[in-house]
Design a protein that fits this description.
The protein has four domains: about 90 residues, Uridine Diphospho-n-acetylenolpyruvylglucosamine Reductase, domain 2, CATH 3.30.43; about 120 residues, 2-Layer Sandwich (Uridine Diphospho-n-acetylenolpyruvylglucosamine Reductase, domain 3); about 120 residues, Alpha-Beta Plaits; about 80 residues, 2-Layer Sandwich (Alpha-Beta Plaits), CATH 3.30.70.2740. The longest helix is centred in the last third of the chain and has 21 residues. By secondary structure, it is α+β, with helices and mostly antiparallel strands. The chain has 15 helices and 19 strands. Bound molecules: flavin-adenine dinucleotide, (2R)-2-hydroxypentanedioic acid and zinc ion.
Length: about 475
């Protein structure tokens, strides 16, 4: 029996995709990389995933796991060899159990993030992970990249939201680690190794995740600021005033929201005069609307008096709050439409962010005149999307010529500021060659030993994270 027929015996013929049906799975979200594969398979249960992996392991066939295919680092795209099987998790989309007393939910890994948020809401809880791709990204992809997003400041990233995992290992055996425990010091933490491993150590099939109380009220404000220093000063003040009630603090260069408005004119900008920087601030309150607003107004009033804020709008209702967030969440799409760009998902300590931006912007101006700086990100986490784009003076051809030099300039700067070259998107294939530049040889060697221990045949997402 042929290899593809064996796969079809496991998952059913209609769940083995080839030819035109395979095409959408071969290219990444940004159209930056296209690979090739024997087929895509869509298993419908953990047992089917295990059987598929056993077949692939037996034949030495690479397995590239794909959830929503929203990776921004080429993590879910196969290489050009055409040997791989793409394992698509879309049919693993069940909510297995909600345990209200334990405040946990157990779901399969192909569940779309937004569907999980809704299920939690319907059960009277909050699942706080929130990102612009939430309508299509999956829990498995969120786990495999240790996704962050806009609520990390208060609730942490995906690792911090996870209690247990179920994983199919490289030999096709199932590890059931679906524990709902907040305390469990029984040896090495396999769960935390699989989280963030980008499909290179195992295939996550289910997870037990933490749930939180729904806040009684939320308050959102957009601020106009003249400098990053002021944005950091407001953050400092907000942290002191709100403590854990501060759930989001996002920074955006004026050019980013101009681009959103340019691409989507129905999205109105909040200020008559265009600010150099915007900040989007959100608090969640357990008491209620009036209490939240009172706290908000008091803190923003102090900030005005201190000269940190030039202007502010506080959302009057949920729709206005949604509109402000929608501006923020549309930046990635606008940048994709308006320019060719290079993404740098970096983090540096918050205390050094203003200096990092000033120095790196100046270096870009000197070395690449005309390159468009369009920085935004999760300032509260020290995570910037230090993205740069083409302009009339810096064309697509200039960018293609200088791609590596720009990448190195920004990553070297993040490294020099004690930062990271990937805060939340992962390494995938786009950053794999950057690893030896910034990771100590000892760290890389330990990582390689882990990879060999978990996947001795190197069949799980080869060429990603490590070479
Ligand atoms: P995929 O893209 O399908 O896969 C991502 C990686 O995970 C690949 O290496 C893949 O092999 C692996 N993988 C997928 N499923 C599994 C599984 N079940 N088991 C093992 N490995 C698996 N990221 C953030 O952190 N914060 C953001 O704010 C954010 N915003 C985004 C906004 C937009 C518009 C877009 C396009 C992306 C954004 N991302 C963000 C990046 C991306 O969406 C997230 O990393 C998301 O978590 C990926 O989920 P996915 O299901 O699409 O995974
Ligand atoms: C976000 O914060 C995402 O919106 C995407 O992480 C970042 O487009 C980007 O570079
Ligand atoms: Zn982000």
């Amino acid at each position: 029996m042929s290899f593809l027929s064996s796969l079809a015996e496991v998952v059913g013929q209609k769940n083995v995709l080839t030819g035109e049906e395979l095409a959408p799975y071969l290219t990444d979200w940004r159209n930056m990389a296209t690979g090739a594969a024997q087929c895509a398979v869509k298993p419908g249960s953990t047992e089917e995933v295990a059987a598929v992996v056993k077949l692939c392991a037996g034949a030495g066939v690479p397995v590239v796991t794909q959830g929503g295919n929203t990776s921004l680092v080429g993590g879910a795209t196969p290489d050009a060899s055409g040997n791989a099987v793409i394992l698509v998790t879309a049919r693993l989309n069940k909510i297995r159990v909600i345990d209200p007393d334990n405040a946990t939910i157990t779901v399969e890994s192909g569940l779309i993030l937004q569907n999980l948020q809704e299920a939690a809401r319907n059960a009277g809880f909050l699942f706080p992970l929130s990102l612009a791709a939430e309508g299509s990204c999956t829990i498995g992809g969120n786990l495999a990249t240790n996704a962050g997003g806009t609520q990390v400041l208060r609730y942490g990233n995906m690792r911090e939201l996870t209690l247990g995992l179920e994983v199919v290992c490289a030999d096709g055996e199932i590890w059931n680690g679906l524990r709902g425990l907040r305390k469990d010091n029984t040896g090495y933490d396999l769960r935390d190794l699989f989280i963030g491993s980008e499909g290179t150590l195992g295939i996550i099939t289910a997870a037990t995740l933490k749930l939180f109380p729904q806040p009684a009220a939320k308050c959102t404000a957009m601020l106009a600021l003249s400098s990053v220093e002021n944005a950091v000063a407001v953050l400092r003040r907000a942290r002191k005033a709100f403590d854990t009630a501060l759930t989001g603090y996002e920074l955006m260069a004026g050019v980013c929201l101009d681009m959103v408005h340019g691409c989507f004119p129905q999205q109105k900008l909040p200020f008559a005069e265009k600010p150099v920087w915007y900040a989007l601030l959100e608090i969640s309150d357990s008491e209620g609307e009036e209490h939240a607003r009172g706290m908000f107004e008091a803190m923003l009033g102090e900030s005005f008096e201190a000269g940190e804020i030039d202007d502010a709008v506080i959302a009057e209702n949920i729709q206005q709050s949604k509109d402000l967030w929608h501006l923020r969440e549309s930046i990635t799409l606008a940048q994709a439409q308006a320019v060719k760009s290079i993404k740098h998902d970096i983090s540096v300590p918050v205390s050094r962010i203003a200096d990092f931006i000033a120095t790196t912007d100046a270096a870009c101006r000197t070395r690449f005149p005309g390159l468009l700086n369009m920085t935004f990100g999760h300032l509260g986490d020290g995570n910037l999307h230090y993205n740069v784009g083409t302009s009339e003076r810096f064309t697509a051809a200039d960018m293609a010529r200088d791609y590596d030099a720009i990448y190195n300039l920004v990553h070297d700067a993040a490294h020099a500021y004690a930062g990271s070259i990937s805060a939340e998107h992962g390494i995938g294939s786009f950053k794999v060659d950057e690893m030896p530049r910034y990771k100590a040889p000892r760290e890389l060697e330990l990582m390689r030993r882990i990879k060999v221990a978990f996947d001795p045949g190197n069949i799980l997402n080869p060429g990603k994270v490590l070479r």
